[in-house]
Amino acid sequence: MAKEKRRCWQDKVRPEEERKDLKHRLNRIEGQVRGIQKMVEEDIFCPDIVVQIAAVTSALNSVSRQLILSHLDHCVWNDLKTGKKEAADEIIRAFNKLSG
């Protein structure tokens, strides 16, 4: 079996500040999802639940944007400087998944 190519994230050391921010955001989202579960269990008015789902979706999209910007800043930029195109292709695939 051919050895898998190293991808930029395997070489990236995420700055501690960024790691803490992402963890904080994801913990908050986790709490929001638990709140939605409780709302369903308590038979809360459906439109109120949908509003909370929209808030979670927005928060997840925000985390995705932050990760994409980090990837662009580190991996894509470094690859483009060295003439490689793989990271750019990878970010396009990720963006397509996010947007659609």
From TrEMBL:
It comes from the Bacteria. GO terms for biological process: negative regulation of DNA-templated transcription. GO terms for molecular function: DNA binding; metal ion binding. InterPro entries: Metal_Tscrpt_repr (IPR003735), Metal_Tscrpt_repr_sf (IPR038390). Coiled coil: none annotated. Gene3D superfamilies: Metal-sensitive repressor, helix protomer. PANTHER family: COPPER-SENSING TRANSCRIPTIONAL REPRESSOR RICR, TRANSCRIPTIONAL REPRESSOR FRMR-RELATED. Belongs to the FrmR/RcnR family. This is Metal-sensing transcriptional repressor. It comes from Candidatus Avitreponema avistercoris. The lineage of its organism: Bacteria, Pseudomonadati, Spirochaetota, Spirochaetia, Spirochaetales.
